[in-house]
Each structure stands twice: as structure tokens, then as C-alpha cells.
Amino acid sequence: MEISNLLWTTGGIAFFTGLVIGIVLYHFLAGGRPAGNLRSRVTELEAELKEYKDKVADHFSTSAHLVNRLTDTYRDVHEHLATSANELCVDELTRHRLNDALLGSSAIHHKGEKTTPLEQPRDYAPRKDPEAEGTLSETFRVNKGTPQESDPAA
């Protein structure tokens, strides 16, 4: 029986030793790679995303600058055409037609005259009287004494 116990003990120790060695080898050889791979892949993707964001920011910054330059150039060309038309056309009928073609006579800048700056159109009608009640007021056009005709309860 002593040999039998010795065989079982030796077999158990060999089994657990092999199990521990297998776990350690798996962790170092196969198990450690995917975690390290994922970490490096995440780092790569974060760097790519940062680079992409920088490129997008640069693109929109450059586009805004180019559009501003285009607007300034367009305004300069328009002013040049308007001024030249005013100076070169001596015939009143031709000058009037050119003024209409160049967005009206207010577009031509005469020397020494100040022009009023253009403003965006408003999406509301300004009040004529500053003391008047506005259309967003709670009491605007509310009849207090008479019931509404469309009200079924009245």
C-alpha cells in the first residue's frame, strides 16, 4: 500500500506541477500577446484619430481663410467695375443701365461720399413705435370681453 500511496502522491504532484507550468507558459506565450496587441492597437487608433482631427481643423481653417479672400476679391472687383462705370460712361442712359446691372446706383461709390454699411435682413418687422406692444407679448390682440367665435364651449 505504501507503493500505491507513493504513486498517487507522485502522480498528483506531477499533475499540479504540469498544470502550473502550463498556466505560466500560456500566460507568457499566448495570453500576454492579445492584451499587449490590443493596447498597442488602441494607442495607434488614438494617434490616427488625433491626426484626423488636426487635419479636419486645418482644412476648415484654410477653407474659411480662402472664402474670406474670395469675398474680399469679389468686393474689390465689384467696386472697381462700379467706379470705372461711373467714370468712363458719359452717356446718362448707358450709366443708368450699368448702375442697374451693378446692383443699383447705391453700389457705385462716389469719391468723398460715405456709404452706409449693409446689414443682414431681419426675420421680423421692427416696431415703428418703441412703446407699442410687441407680437410676442402675451396680451397681443387678445379680446378680454368677448368669447371667441370658434370656441365650442361658448
From TrEMBL:
One Pfam family per UniProt: ZapG-like
Parts of the chain that traverse the membrane: 6-29
Polar residues bias spans: 136-154
Predominant location: membrane
Ranges in a coiled coil: 35-62
Keyword Transcription: no
UniProt keyword terms in alphabetical order: Cell cycle, Cell division, Cell inner membrane, Cell membrane, Cell shape, Coiled coil, Membrane, Transmembrane, Transmembrane helix
Stretches for region Disordered: 108-154
Membrane topology of the entry: Single-pass membrane protein
Extent of Basic and acidic residues compositional bias: 113-131
Family to which the UniProt record says this protein belongs: Belongs to the ZapG family.
Protein name, as recorded: Z-ring associated protein G
Organism, as annotated: Parendozoicomonas callyspongiae
Lineage: Bacteria, Pseudomonadati, Pseudomonadota, Gammaproteobacteria, Oceanospirillales
